[in-house]
Amino acid sequence: MYSKGNTCGIVGISLYFPDTVRTYKDISQMSNIPEDVILNKFGINQVYVPAEKDQPSDMAVWAAKDCLKKTGIDPEEIDLIIYFGENYSDYQVFSIAPKVIGEIGAVNAWGYDMECKCGSFVVVMDQAKKYMNTEEKINTVMVVAGYRNIDKVNYEDTSVSFLYNLSCAGAAAIIKKGHDKHVVLENENMANGKFAESVVVPGGGSKIPLNSKNILDKNLQYFKLNDPKSFREDLGKVTLDNLVKVTKSACIKSGLTVKDIDFACPLHMKVSAHRQLLQNLNIPEEKSLYLSDYGHTGQLDGIISLKVAEDQGLIKEGDIIAMIAMGFGYQWNAGIVRW
């Protein structure tokens, strides 16, 4: 039976970024979109570009090892590892959680991969907490991810210009039962299946397998926007409202209201949308983090925001933090953390 009785808090967070960046000037040249639009409208200062060594599983492992080192936690203490990264990874049909278990020596852990697209960090924190509140033997959970969907962006296709912010990173966090700092509270999620196939990479799946005849076809290798008119008009009408709804609901489930939010960590979106979301929630812009120097690392935006906000002294003990995300599908997610 699920119980909310146990406090579950984030013990530590570690991040990994590749050595190479792509600036707004680079993206402007690749896309033929003016520099000021990339910088000031899209909100991109730079994104991280992976080298060959920066595979999703390896970036996850490197972040996991760093998190263990910084927190001083013995890997044998970990009971569960949940990988929350994108399903585009090193190989097709590949589970990364077991690799992380082996690489870090978490001999007493079991693990699995989950995905809720760019809302995954919100959802995985909730899953970790619920496992610890339902399974007596699960006391320490590591959540870990790697992301390099930047590989799948065609900068010559302006219909997917909203994906020009895609970046690359690895991240890990350790959550413990009974830890009374950085406490994971409640979350809320909603979805609309109308947009389930709105954005896809057409080739490489069971529907359109890649073969010697089509493997060089860019239309199959990169993100494709299906029905751009509906995506921009119909989705645009509901997205900000849905983000506000899940944020308010997550607050209520946590015994709070949006007025109690001290800091907001939305995923990276264009500048105008970021500002409008904060305005709709009555949150001052200075009480949020905008990821212009990191780009959009999909599932990792939330965990990066928490770590960067902590490192920059933007959040303090006891602050109520709203993690706000959305992802292809289409899904909207919000989670609350008491720092």
Uncertain runs with pLDDT below 50, 5 residues or more? none
Termini separation comes to: 27 Å
Helix content: 25-40%
Taken together, the total number of domains comes to: 2
| Annotated CATH homologous superfamily of the largest domain | Thiolase/Chalcone synthase
Description:
The longest helix has 26 residues, at 228-253. This protein has a five-stranded mixed sheet, with helices on both faces. A four-stranded mixed sheet has the order 8-13-12-11, sandwiched between helices. It is of the alpha/beta class and 339 residues long. The chain is built from nine helices and 13 strands. Helix 1 packs across helix 2 (35-41) and helix 3 (56-71) crosses helix 4 (97-104).
What order do the helices and strands come in, and which of them pair?
Elements lengths: L7 E9 L3 E4 H8 L3 H7 L4 E4 L6 H16 L8 E4 L13 H8 L5 E4 L6 H15 L5 E8 L21 E9 L5 E9 L7 E2 L17 H4 L2 E2 L2 H26 L9 E4 L4 H10 L20 H11 L8 E8 L3 E8 L1
Parallel strand pairs: 4-5, 4-6, 11-12
Antiparallel strand pairs: 1-7, 2-3, 6-7, 8-13, 9-10, 12-13
Helix pairs in contact: 1-2, 3-4, 7-8
Task: Using brief descriptors, characterize the structure shown.
Peroxisomal Thiolase, Chain A, domain 1, 339 residues, four-stranded mixed β-sheet, five-stranded mixed β-sheet, alpha/beta, single chain
Short description:
With 339 residues, the chain is α/β, with parallel strands linked by helices.
